[in-house]
Amino acid sequence: MKTLADAQHTITPAPAPSEGIRKRKRTELKYGLLFASPVLLGYLAFVLGPLVITFALGFTEYSMVGTPKFVGLDNFTRLFTGKEPLFYDAVVSTFYYVMVSVPLGIGFSFVLALLLNSKIKGRAFFRGLFYLPVIIPLAASSVIWLWMLQPDFGVVNYVLGLFGVPKIPWLSSDSTVIPTLILFSLWLTGNTMVIFLAGLQNIPSHLYEAIEVDGGNTLHKIWYITLPMSSSIIFFNTVIGFVNAFQTFVQPAVMTQGGPNNASYLIVYYLFKEGFQFTKFGTASAAAFLLFLIILLCTAVLFKFSDSLVYYEGQERGK
Amino acid sequence: MKLRAFARRLALYVILSLGGLLFVFPFYWMLRTAFMGMDGLFQIPPAFVPKSFELDNFVEALSSNPFGRYFWNSTVVTVLSIAGVVLSSSLCAYSFSRISWTGRDKVFGFILTGLMLPFFVVMIPHFLGWKFLHLTDTLVPLIAPAWFGGGVFNIFLLRQFFLTIPRDMDEAAKMDGAGHFRIYWNIIMPISKQSLIVIGMLTFLANWNDYLAPMVFISSEKNYTLMLGLTLFQGTYSAQWHLMMAATAIIVLPSLIVFLIGQRYFVEGIAMSGVKG
């Protein structure tokens, strides 16, 4: 039956192909949606829906018992006017941590990648060494560092002591806790380093040879070739770095419980405590939504910024 | 000139070796402490090589908590998540790369925005949703998301790869009367084995090492994953660092083994995400 219909279509010239194409388009659409249905449903159930709910809960007071009570902008005004001191602590410590650890991490891993990109034996081995901390469960490595950083019996202070460095309180003083977490984050930059390294290996060597012909040295090569050619990857890593750093949770949860004096009460830890320990879902949702906006804003600024700084191959600057 | 080049290379090796040593030292220190008795813990100067190798700490750490139970829970979550991610993200990537349907690329662009949404923004609605379904304090919330697309990032990676597979293969199969499911399963999936392994490995890490999601969804100890179990140890063993380190070493081991087996895939996968993205 079907074949007969098809045969007839091929005989009548004008409307036939369009009909066939339309039919084919319909089946393609059907299969396309069918194959994509897991992520389409997932996007609704795990992304879009929850985002709307977070936004809505931000205007309520809700602690799991009964139904959410609408309170208007109350949560937001309390967050903004400092009536939630913990939120204030969380924002301050998070910004301190993010603004220092991301640029430092980018610089550190870029230099590391440059070193690994020179002609050395055993590059894969070294790369593995520097990458290793990334694959270890963060909760486990946090415990290890907690032990090594004990002020009195930790091995770090002991070794530093051999060089005459006085005991550093590391995680147990509110002035050193964030710097310590920043140093810890440098130990975890393996991902960034590997991405940089892959990018460096893609830079065509004739560019460097040109500099050599002109009598330039290593610094010239880095400044005129490596940095411009890596700018898009630096940008990518910076964006990812920011988004990830904002989400730091394990370190305060395992190492410091937000202390001492709330100095390491990073924002996700705050959200977790506020939501699941104190069951203040309303306040936590309002704070979560605000934070999401902040992250989007930071990313937008980075993108804006990148227009003038990032060089994409085959594209003129500033376009 | 030659001497300078030599000195430079030497300096490079020295810097890299010292740096590498610094990066792996914590794991050495963990093992050293795990093999030590309580008495050596707070000794100054610390012994850099333990005087005796005792396995007692491991035995005690393993028997003090239902470690086997945590291990089993972590394994269930990780294995089922990997299966879900590999199947569902490849199905979706196939749709976004090899079926040409109206509005496909717009929908894909829209879905990519999901990359920008951190888990903490939506964790309260997620919790309330699972609570509504009476599924909190089960392993379901930790597994289910993997079966719904398996993360936008994985779809993105696989799509990049699928786009490089020549179209002729599909066309030839279509001539033979194969439908999309046959092409997907018999042609695209076997060719993409490498990429699928990369994604499986990344999923292993993400799930095995995850801390926040189990903290949010799991409340009773019998459903704890290994990472949550570790916090229990922290509570019971405060200041008994030799036992803490023994427990930590046991937890670190599976990740380490997976890494050693699949180092190449990890590094390739990470590099792929940055350079092509």
Automatic annotation (TrEMBL), chain A:
What InterPro entries does the annotation carry?
Answer: ABC_transporter_permease (IPR051393), MetI-like (IPR000515), MetI-like_sf (IPR035906)
Q: Where the protein is mainly located, per its record?
A: membrane
Q: Where are the transmembrane segments?
A: 31-59, 95-116, 128-148, 177-201, 222-243, 249-272, 284-303
Residue ranges of domain ABC transmembrane type-1 in the record: 91-302
- Location(s) in or outside the cell: Cell membrane
Q: Name one GO biological process term.
A: transmembrane transport
| Presence of keyword Lipid metabolism | no
Q: What kind of membrane protein is this, topologically?
A: Multi-pass membrane protein
Which GO CC terms are listed, alphabetically? plasma membrane
**Mind listing the UniProt keywords for this protein, alphabetically?**
Cell membrane, Membrane, Transmembrane, Transmembrane helix, Transport
Q: Tell me which family the UniProt entry assigns to this protein.
A: Belongs to the binding-protein-dependent transport system permease family.
**PANTHER family this protein is in?**
ABC TRANSPORTER PERMEASE PROTEIN (PTHR30193), INNER MEMBRANE ABC TRANSPORTER PERMEASE PROTEIN YCJO (PTHR30193:SF37)
The protein's name is Sugar ABC transporter permease
- Identify the species of origin: Paenibacillus faecis
UniProtKB/TrEMBL annotation, chain B:
Going by the UniProt record, its keywords in alphabetical order are: Cell membrane, Membrane, Transmembrane, Transmembrane helix, Transport
What sections of the protein cross the membrane? Answer: 12-31, 70-96, 108-130, 142-162, 183-206, 241-262
Name the InterPro entries for this protein: MetI-like, MetI-like_sf
Cite the Gene3D superfamilies for this sequence. MetI-like
Extent of the signal sequence: none
Q: Which domain of life is it from?
A: Bacteria
Pfam families, per this entry?
Answer: BPD_transp_1
| UniProt keyword annotation of Ligase present | no
Q: Does the keyword Repressor apply?
A: no
Q: What is its main location?
A: membrane
Put simply, this protein is called Carbohydrate ABC transporter permease
* Lineage of the organism: Bacteria, Bacillati, Bacillota, Bacilli, Bacillales
